[in-house]
Amino acid sequence: MLFRQLFEAETSTYTYLIADTTTQEAALVDPVIETVERDIKLVRELGLTLKYCLETHVHADHITGTAKLRELTGCAGMVPENAQVDCASDFIKHGDVIKVGGIPIQGIATLGHTDSHMAYLVNGDRVLTGDALLIRGCGRTDFQSGDAGTLYDSVMNNLFTLPDDTLVYPGHDYRGHTVSTIGEEKQWNPRFVGRNREQFIEFMNNLDLPNPKKIMEAVPANENCGAVLNK
Amino acid sequence: MLFRQLFEAETSTYTYLIADTTTQEAALVDPVIETVERDIKLVRELGLTLKYCLETHVHADHITGTAKLRELTGCAGMVPENAQVDCASDFIKHGDVIKVGGIPIQGIATLGHTDSHMAYLVNGDRVLTGDALLIRGCGRTDFQSGDAGTLYDSVMNNLFTLPDDTLVYPGHDYRGHTVSTIGEEKQWNPRFVGRNREQFIEFMNNLDLPNPKKIMEAVPANENCGAVLNK
């Protein structure tokens, strides 16, 4: 397996490239429109065939690169079930396994940051957590039908139940961390440690954060797979 | 082995944490003064004992975190031989192996970006290339006694001779790449591909780059292990 973490600095977003080095099939998870040229260049240099773009959710802070990548490569654009996206090639349900060559990518429903959100367990040993679980943090729950209690349940029941040595690769990081483990987050994530469900809900509902700068542009564009008018 | 790549966004610098998860001994390579608190917090959360801070070279773009980390933990501060640093705990020569628990970290002389520079081969399968070799790029050679011909020789003779599947972890990245391989850089690094030594020297000597913003502050501070007056 080839596994590459890629960073988009303006919105601190991680994109992941996963490929089977035998079949040369590849998938990108959470590509960003601004870094499509970089990502497609890398895919081509590595001699890969992009089969899938997967979204963890409909992003509010950046526009997905999926539409552009689909246009350039003919790859399928996959989104979590219940996402308000008409243009998806297909929808992924909890437990579904997508195969990239011989590499399994399994969807894990992790709602709460938004009302449609999938983490992806890659190769059984690493989980791309999107905005559900961040390193020593978690995604906000105050827009896009987010719900703090739902996020708490998703993390507790569907992520913190994975083996402790499962690597955690988040959708964003704002402090320069690149990777963690489930065991580490269970022990040290300050959003969850020492808070029960009720306390977590109260904490999250009082964060009082400003909206992401790009939300008015990003959400409608992402509901259209990242196809932006006049762009 | 635990291996963590950490990013400092202002100067796009990567710091590396390497630890033996059996003995809990750890080393940091190229720590940055601004992110010492983050790094020491991580070291403590992971239950590690910081034995070494290693520098790939005397940096011109940021101040090392070594003095602060040495003060906080009593770790040794190691620098490449010939570095103009009086305060180092010890100097590393080409071929020297430092052991972090059972993990070997071997110095590979890679002069040219500066006249004292060490890459570190960690665990035999990944090389921390500092500013000698970047992903699809390389460090500049126009100050601190840098020399383009020397850098060319270092990369050709001491890095591109490593096995193709050796992972390349650079000291910086400005485009959001996190890792590459020796094979990939031999095939795709535009600074080296299609240029002989002479052409490389001519190219590097005509880059005409502005000095790093922090050079006047960083170099003297780093020659003092990162101990900054009034800081």
Topology (SSEs and partners):
The structure is a homodimer of 231-residue chains.
Chain A: E1 2-8, E2 13-19, E3 25-29, H1 36-45, E4 49-54, H2 66-73, E5 76-80, E6 90-92, E7 97-100, E8 103-109, E9 118-122, E10 126-130, E11 133-134, E12 137-138, H3 148-159, E13 167-170, E14 180-181, H4 182-188, H5 197-205, H6 215-222
Parallel strand pairs in A: 3-4, 4-5, 5-6, 10-13
Antiparallel strand pairs in A: 1-2, 2-3, 7-8, 8-9, 9-10, 11-12, 13-14
Provide structural commentary:
- Two copies of one chain form a homodimer.
- The first copy, chain A, is α/β, with parallel strands linked by helices and 231 residues long.
- The first copy, chain A, has one domain (2-209): Ribonuclease Z/Hydroxyacylglutathione hydrolase-like (Metallo-beta-lactamase, Chain A, 4-Layer Sandwich), CATH 3.60.15.
- Chain A has helices at residues 36-45, 66-73, 148-159, 182-188, 197-205, 215-222, and strands spanning 2-8, 13-19, 25-29, 49-54, 76-80, 90-92, 97-100, 103-109, 118-122, 126-130, 133-134, 137-138, 167-170, 180-181.
- In chain A, strands 1-2-3-4-5-6 form a six-stranded mixed beta sheet. Chain A has a six-stranded mixed beta sheet with strand order 7-8-9-10-13-14.
- The longest helix of chain A is centred in the middle third of the chain and has 12 residues, at 148-159.
- The mean pLDDT of chain A is 95.
- The A-B interface holds A 4-9, 35, 38, 42, 45-46, 175-179, 184, 187-188 and B 4-9, 35, 38, 42, 45-46, 175-179, 184, 187-188.
